[in-house]
TrEMBL record:
GO terms for molecular function: dynein intermediate chain binding; dynein light intermediate chain binding. InterPro entries: DHC (IPR026983), Dynein_heavy_tail (IPR013594). Residues 4-165 form the Dynein heavy chain tail domain. One of its GO terms (cellular component) is axonemal dynein complex. This is DYH5 protein. One of its GO terms (biological process) is microtubule-based movement. It comes from Quiscalus mexicanus (Great-tailed grackle).
Amino acid sequence: EVTEKLEEVVMIWTKQIQQVLVESKQIRREADDVGPSAELEHWKSRMSSFNSLLDEIKSSRVKKIISILQAARSKTLQQWKELDHSITTAANEAKDNVRYLYTLDKFFGPLAHASPVMMEHIPSLMNVVFMIYCTSPYYNTSENMTSLFLKITNQMINTCKTYLCEG
């Protein structure tokens, strides 16, 4: 009877975690003119969410319940292990992406506040983007790189618009 109650609790957790994972994979809705710092903020937010979820999964209360279910040879544990792995992978991805995007952070200010003659920053910026593409185990997907280039382009356009309106 205790095992059944604990399995019910784990199934509720499983559904909640699956919901978080599904939501994290949905397409982001962003304004058309959002700059590259929004990319860093997005991944920082994901990192925070997944790290707190990992902390909860690794808590002593959860570990006790899982060990009781292991002793009872519960069938719910296989799905739990898969979810634990998925959350760990998502947390690692977010942490890694934040680390790589922070290398670009020093370019975001100059890109936003430079005159349209921002060419001096572009080669260094592109070198860092290239480094991220070549070395990041997670961020180097077509989807992520396209999103980043779109945001960098948006920032350049916004900077030019501001320059024209103030001139």
